[in-house]
Amino acid sequence: MANHIVGATGRTVTSGFLKSVLQNGVGRYVCQLQRITLKFCKASGQSRGVRDYVENHLLDFAAVNPGVVVYVTPKPQIHARVVAEYLNGEIHTVFLDKKSAEEIQQHVQSLVWRSGQPLVRLRKTQHTENPSIQGQWTPFTNRPSNTTAALEEKLKSLAK
Question: What keywords is this UniProt entry annotated with (predicted)?
């Protein structure tokens, strides 16, 4: 149901409707983030913020989110990034080069709050999978039929 439209930047922007995660537990919230991996270089200056985040904030994050598995992968000469894996199989990567520990904390928290669904441009603000069986409402819906017919004829004559 999603259309792909190429934007001015050449990137493909998907359009669609909002979807909810239906397997989100019965009666309780289930965080959709399954695993988070921090990849960074131990020696690079661009990874300084990630190293600071790992040293000062990562244990607090793990304590607050016990259902999320956290991996820390230091590798030489790679760009700092966080890779988030969700229950629906989606994988999102955010590059963290030259970011402070506070900015990284905001990025990680936004990954926790996401549902794992791809970001889409909304076609409409309202959508339903089950439209009304009564039909669409019009100004003539609850009027007597003789009044409705007279008004419709009057509107047709005005439109001409």
Answer: Mitochondrion, Ribonucleoprotein, Ribosomal protein
Distance CA 94, CA 117 (A): 15
pLDDT digits (tens, 9 = 90+) for 57-74: 999 999 999 999 999 999
Q: What is the pLDDT of residues 63-118, one digit of tens each?
A: 999 999 999 999 999 999 999 999 989 999 999 999 999 999 999 999 999 988 88
**Contact criterion met (CB below 8 Å) for 85 and 50:** no
As a CATH number, domain 31-116 is 3.40.30.10
Could you state, in order of their start, the residue ranges of all structural domains in the chain? 31-116
Alpha carbon distance 112, 140 (integer Å): 48
In eight-state DSSP terms, residue 119 is P
Which residues are within 8 A (CB) of 36 and not within 5 positions of it... i.e. 6 or more apart? 68, 69, 70, 71, 82, 83, 84, 85, 108, 111
